[in-house]
Amino acid sequence: MTVREIRLNKNLTYRTFPYRCEPDSLEFRIDQFAVDDGSFTEPEQPHYLDLDEYRGWDTLHLRIEIRIPDGLLGKVFPEFDDIPGMLVVAAHCRTTYLREGIVVEDEPIRSGTYTRDVELSSDSVAGSLDLRPLLVRTTDTDAGDEYATEAGVFVADGPRGRVDFEDDNAGDEGLLEVRTRTFSEEGEDSRFPPEDRLHYLDLESDPGQPIVWVNDDHTQVASLMAGDGGSQYDRLTRDLVWNQVMSPVWTRLVTIAAIEYDADTDEWDPEWQAAVFEDLHDELYDDLTPEKAAERLQEDLTKAPVDATRRVEDAVQSVLDPATCYMKHIQGLTD
Fold first, then answer.
1. Out of the domains of life, which is the source (predicted)?
2. Mean pLDDT, residues 182-190 taken together
């Protein structure tokens, strides 16, 4: 598996619900772990595992545990017997752009404690791995507006877990935040776009911390982007939406970073601009360092903007690979 490093992304949190939902109600922990053929060991913290001392590992075994407390299911499901829910752990690695739903227990669900062994290879994760437990509805229902009625919608979650691996690029991680906001609630003088827009790249609030705001007016899309639902269709659609959002975001970030680059300084300011060219300099210009690539693109944007913007778009497509993303989605619909 080829690992493509895309560090400028972060988990989207979604905490407003138009139906019965119980955030932070599941009990979740990393119960034990083992590296390669070693024995299982209990981590020092239930929600955090630091593997920095295990450099060079090939396979990581995680034993995760989720507990559904008594009384929770009755709050979020209208059914009394054979409750159509499943437990899923949403795994997200920002460095390798891995997003995967790990099914811990399938329907019908009951209160109680569930464990699942997860195996990860070193070529699929790097930097860090975020783990989010979710209780997801598995069937549609016409129970009314009070409850979640569509399959794939999560109705409860719990504390997030995190696994940190050795990270040679620790300073670059998390430089782009993703948050939700309801654009329709903004005033006329707001910098946010109209309510029919899906997202907004905010570089005004804090030039050193780019933020992608996802419009909460589009509830189903925002919920999907948050990682809710574990079906194959949901995963393929989620990747497609993320790709659609990140393409213009990357294009704008690269262009602005090039325009603002100062060749006379020893350090990048703001820092996120360095991360942009660390990832894209080879795609923009062969055999140029990130600094030289920024300087060259800055010149090209002034002298030949049509060619320069085409070069940026080609580089972003090379990194995000939208063609493959679309093909997977089409194959998923036809299979």
1. Archaea
2. 82
Best CA proximity match to 271, nearest among 127, 179, 191, 170:
170
Beta strands in 203-242 (DSSP E): 211-215
Work out the percent of the chain whose per-residue pLDDT is above 90.
Answer: 30
Contact 120, 214 (CB under 8 A): no
Give SS3 for 132.
strand
Is the Cβ–Cβ distance between 160 and 134 less than 8 Å?
no
320: Cα separation from own chain's centroid: 14
Residue 96 to residue 92: CA distance in whole angstroms: 9
Helix (H) or strand (E) holding 74: helix 72-76
Which helix (H) or strand (E) segment holds residue 71: the answer is none
CA distance 243 to 7: 14
C-alpha to C-alpha distance for 316 and 325, rounded to whole angstroms: 14
Question: Token pair for residue 333?
Answer: 């619909």
Task: Compute the mean pLDDT over every residue in the chain, rounded to the nearest whole number.
Answer: 82
Give the separation between CA 188 and CA 325, rounded to whole angstroms. 37
pTM: 0.52
Cα separation, 216 vs 185, whole angstroms: 10
* DSSP codes of every residue in 118-138: EEEETTT--SEEEEEEEEEE-
**Identity of residue 239:** D
The structural domains of the chain, ordered by start, are: 27-172 (2.70.50)
Q: Is 190 exposed, middle or buried (0-12, 13-18, 19+ CB in 10 A)?
A: exposed
